[in-house]
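[Automated response] Your request has been received and processed.

Submitted sequence:
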Amino acid sequence: MPRQLLPDPEHFTGRTDALALLDALLPQLGARPLLTVVSGPAGVGKSSLVTRWLHGLGDRFPDGQLYADLRGHLPDSGPAAPGEILGRFLRALGVKEVPVEPAESAALWRSHTAGLRLVVMLDNALSAAQVRPLLPSSPGSLVVVTSRRRLTALGIDGASFQQLGVLSAADAVRLLAGRIGADRVRREPEAAEEVAALCAGLPLAVSVAAARLAARPQQSLSAMAGALGGSGAARLAALSVGGEDAVRLALDASYHQLTPELARGYRRLGLPPVAVLNGPVAAAACAVGPDEGDRLLDDLAEVSLLEDLGPDDTTGLGRYRFHDLVRAHAGQLADTTEAPEARRETVRRVVDHYLAAATAAEELLTPSHRSLRRDYAFPPGHRPPFDTAAGALGWLDTERFHLMAALRTAAEHGWDATAWQLADAMWPLFLRLRPYDLWTEAHEIGRAAAERDGDRRGLSRMLTSGGVGLRNAGRSDEALAWFAEAVHGARADADRKAEAQALHGLGQSHLLAGRLDDATTYLTEALALREAIGYRRGAAMTRICLGDAALTAGRPGAAVPPLAEARAALLAVPDPYDAARALALLGLALARAGARHTTGEDAETVLWQALDEFTAAGSVHWRARTLEMLGETAELRGDRTEARDRYERSLALYEPVSDSDTARLRTRLTELGRLP
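Generated structure:
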């Protein structure tokens, strides 16, 4: 009886979930031949996983254990022909004369295996066509195929599929410890975790790093981490043993099987500064249409050079990502194959894609803010991946870190106009979702870029929009300095609208700091200027702040008229988001004054309407704030139970986005006796 399986891997680590998924297939044995495909990138441990699993099956297959390396990824020798493997298998089962013709060999193989219980491991398969003639016919047989390709065509043969990912961080450290000794890892636990992280959970990379460390017992793990922490090329070079670049060679083998078009896409997709790729990004990077971008990503996922993450819950776009070392390999190939100008153009196309899409979102969500120029080296050639306000906000939320990466990249490359324009286009993200760290960083970069670009309007916008972010982040002194600079610049440029905006910002900053007299002075000056130039929306925004100042001063009755007037003006513009802000503050003023709206609604009715409007707008911050106001109205009428419920709902929304608001809500709940 042949027992050809590879030796049980000595340092096999983790993979509990993957082994459980394979075990779940076993009840199907006997009803039909069982076929499963385990796919994944080079070096992820497909063969080790399958070998470990099959060794654990004991005597389930008494008629033989057959193994063949189909050489699907060896460019020198080429893939094994099915006839070659059939001959070996038949001879291993005792067949003395094997037919020369592949079709006859396949027929004999099916006949000979009809009543046998066999396990067959087909390692490193290239295609379904290579595998199909090697399938035995017995319902008691098991065939496991490993491949860097997904081999979805085997689905018509009844195959199940398992995509194998990288090791968890803990398992990667355990694999390292198993190879170099647990004591060595215990002496440098943080460095061990860093080495594992820099190997990105790829077992082959961890094993290569471990082999280098094992051969150098005096070398520290921190030194290895330093070697792995370099550029893409340096990182791949560090993963070599005995002069053989194991990781790079494995990836080279996959790369050399790509078509020229796919190879070009692979190289170029390693260049953009984004962690997750989708069709529009791929289309921009490779200068192709959206359908071609999707197809390119799917084809690279098919050969396991990209990981398919499934569609995004918000946008519905397919999402893909590179393994860190695969991306380093793609980038290295781009550096050595693509001309410098082509590399620069690839990155610029992606940055321009993000600028165009963010600008489209800005036009949908905050059209009054969309007033400054946009400069594109490569104007967008297709529609943004959304067509509604809700879709635009969802896209901004999903892509926030990629937008920031594009902004930083623009500044690093000297694309200064693009840098500040990206910060400007991201305004609805900052306004609605309040990521204060990104808000301030974007405008600090944007301000410097606008200064270098020499664009006075861009600089003014960066100072005022950035000042709002600094103020909301609790950096009030810096905010005042930014607004003061904006006032000075606007007066020098005789730009009355920009001057009013900066004065308004100064007033808001003093209001937040509790300096009510200063706040009222600046806001009154801003209101007069806005009314003088006929800027109706701006005047309404300043009235909101004057109403808020009256509320803060304990004069809710005085807050009602400016807030009601602001609400009506903003509905007429129309500006539904800011109209909802005016309505929420109006509801709070009515509650504190014990009054009703002129239209007859009581305070709570007004506030519930505002909450509905903020929910429709997707504003987490103002939903939380309105729920807090509703909690206060319940508390004012003595309903502590309802107040607690509303404060808790508000707190749940505040916690992910604002530490200061979270602290305030916890204080409110503590005072009600809910929290310690």
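Summary generated for your ticket: The mean pLDDT is 90. The two ends are 71 Å apart (CA to CA).
If you did not submit this request, please reply to this message.
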